[in-house]
Amino acid sequence: MIKTDVLVLGGGLAGLSTAYHLQKSGKKSVLVVEKKERAGGLAGSVRFRGFTFDHTGHLLHLHDPYGRRLILDLLKGRTSLIARSSWIFSQGRYTRYPFQANTYGLPEKTADECVVGFLKTLEGRAAAAGPRGDFRSFCLRHFGDGVSRHFMFPYNRKLWRVPLNRLTADWQGGFVPKPTAGEVLRGALMDQREGFGYNAVFHYPRRGGIQALPDALAGRLAPGTLLTGHAVLGLDLRRRRALVAGLGEVAYERLVNTLPLPAFLDLSGELPANVAKARRALRWNAVWCLNLGVERTRVSDKHWVYFPEKRFPFYRVGFYSNFAASNAPRGSSSLYVEFSRKPSEPVSLPALERSALAALRACGVLRHGDRIVARLWMRIPCAYVLYDFNRAPALAAIAPFLKKNGVDSIGRYGAWKYSFMEAAILDGRACAESLLEPKRR
Ligand SMILES: Cc1cc2nc3c(=O)[nH]c(=O)nc-3n(C[C@H](O)[C@H](O)[C@H](O)COP(=O)(O)OP(=O)(O)OC[C@H]3O[C@@H](n4cnc5c(N)ncnc54)[C@H](O)[C@@H]3O)c2cc1C
């Protein structure tokens, strides 16, 4: 039987980073088991008919000094630093992201409703903000009723697929930019080019899509550490054994989980009643992504565009070939079209594709006569964790169970949170450091 000090479930960025940081210490043996043939998880890319498709846009927003140093070192000289060009398409025109700070160019009545609504929030006169810290009330309180009605509500309903008063505002942290009054007023009067928010610039590999990052991290691991093509099939947490396809039982001292928390709990056998109940309370959405290769250069000059209106079946469209020319063969462009669904909602891909292509023509991204030379659907079965009011109590009920069984559950889905690639890498480092602390044993 294989034995290891630390067994890491999942070879996405969080799992790879845990192994890398543990190995740097040289103090513990570590194995990473990954069900797919290639590591990377959601930060993986697929080569298809000469195009490189990621799992929708995966752009590197680097905020932490250590994260930045490590990621740029891993991709040494092989990334571009790009100033974001992101837009909203509504009422038949493009306005700059974020909507709340850029109403210039919208019809006068809409811009007026947005600015007046925002100014009322400053006077504490925001409309109908509810008593609970729900996301709907958060939008009204911070942006006012105009911005909420014209963008925040319709866009977020499309993305989250649940009534917005069922969500908390906890997830939005640094993700939803909150402009000042000056920025809102300037943004109503002129085409304001200042980059707002957490992702005003981004890094992206010049070749190989975002897969270049997990590949570089995996390349730093000692041979034999990363076992791809081996799915975890079951766990005996009490005996500290994992059943892994093609390997049989693996004995470990500590377990690091990066699989989606509900999937991990489902592999863990019979759960205590309160943990089973908490597991049933966890909610998420699935994203379907239609990747397209088009035989025309530069179908758009933008990086990505948000579509709040109902008449567009997708919530966002982005352009891989504008992140790196190498993502598409010469003379062509590539894009991704994102749809959100409840995890078990039935989806007719041919119908969705037809409506998406018609909508892309309606907004001018595609032209009649454009030849589509590659189309590839990807499903992200667990894409966004829903921050509803059950999430925090459920996590609080699950945490002692994990601790008791020597499990660290980390990364975007292991920790069951809204976070990004750099955070997954930092989670791995923090986990390795805590596993190396003698007092934990
Ligand atoms: C639509 C979308 C867009 C995003 N855009 C960005 C962006 O622009 N910038 C950014 O920084 N971040 C972005 N992210 C977030 C980013 O993808 C994640 O933060 C990061 O990739 C999470 O890494 P992880 O290792 O925690 O999880 P994952 O990448 O999910 O890794 C988990 C791994 O576990 C493996 N696994 C699952 N089941 C088993 C099993 N039974 N046995 C063995 N292995 C298994 C999976 O194959 C996977 O490799 C986006 C996410 C989504 C959904």
Task: Tell me briefly what this model is.
Helices cover 34% and strands 24% of the residues. The protein is α/β, with parallel strands linked by helices and 441 residues long.
Helix/strand layout:
Blueprint: E1 2-9, H1 13-25, E2 30-34, E3 45-48, E4 51-54, H2 65-74, E5 79-83, E6 86-90, E7 93-96, H3 108-122, H4 135-160, H5 181-189, E8 201-205, H6 212-218, E9 226-228, E10 232-236, E11 241-244, E12 248-257, H7 261-267, H8 273-281, E13 284-294, E14 304-306, E15 316-318, H9 320-323, E16 333-341, H10 349-362, E17 372-385, H11 391-404, E18 407-409, H12 411-414, H13 421-436
Parallel strand pairs: 1-2, 1-12, 2-9, 6-14, 12-18
Antiparallel strand pairs: 3-4, 5-8, 6-7, 10-11, 11-12, 13-16, 13-17, 14-15, 15-16
Helix pairs in contact: 1-6, 1-13, 2-13, 3-4, 3-5, 8-11
Flavin-adenine dinucleotide binds next to helix 1, strand 2, strand 17, helix 12 and helix 13.
Explain what this protein looks like in three dimensions.
It contains 13 helices and 18 strands. The two termini are 23 Å apart. It has 3 domains: 2-43 and 61-83 and 205-283 and 388-440, 3-Layer(bba) Sandwich (FAD/NAD(P)-binding domain); 86-198, no CATH class; 284-385, Polyamine Oxidase, Chain A, domain 2 (Alpha-Beta Complex), CATH 3.90.660. 46% of the residues are buried. It is of the alpha/beta class. Helix 1 links the parallel strand 1 and strand 2 (30-34). The model has no long low-confidence stretch (mean pLDDT 94). The longest helix is centred in the middle third of the chain and has 26 residues, at 135-160. Helix 1 runs parallel beside helix 6 (212-218) and helix 1 (13-25) runs parallel beside helix 13 (421-436). It has helices spanning 13-25, 65-74, 108-122, 135-160, 181-189, 212-218, 261-267, 273-281, 320-323, 349-362, 391-404, 411-414, 421-436; strands at 2-9, 30-34, 45-48, 51-54, 79-83, 86-90, 93-96, 201-205, 226-228, 232-236, 241-244, 248-257, 284-294, 304-306, 316-318, 333-341, 372-385, 407-409. The strands form 4 sheets. Strands 1, 2, 9, 10, 11, 12 and 18 form a 7-stranded mixed beta sheet that branches. It has a 7-stranded mixed beta sheet with strand order 7-6-14-15-16-13-17. The structure holds flavin-adenine dinucleotide (FAD). Flavin-adenine dinucleotide binds at residues 9-15, 33-36, 41-43, 56-59, 61, 231-232, 258-259, 287, 380, 383, 411-413, 419-421, 424. Residues 9-15, 33-36, 41-43, 56-59, 61, 231-232, 258-259, 287, 380, 383, 411-413, 419-421, 424 line the site of flavin-adenine dinucleotide.
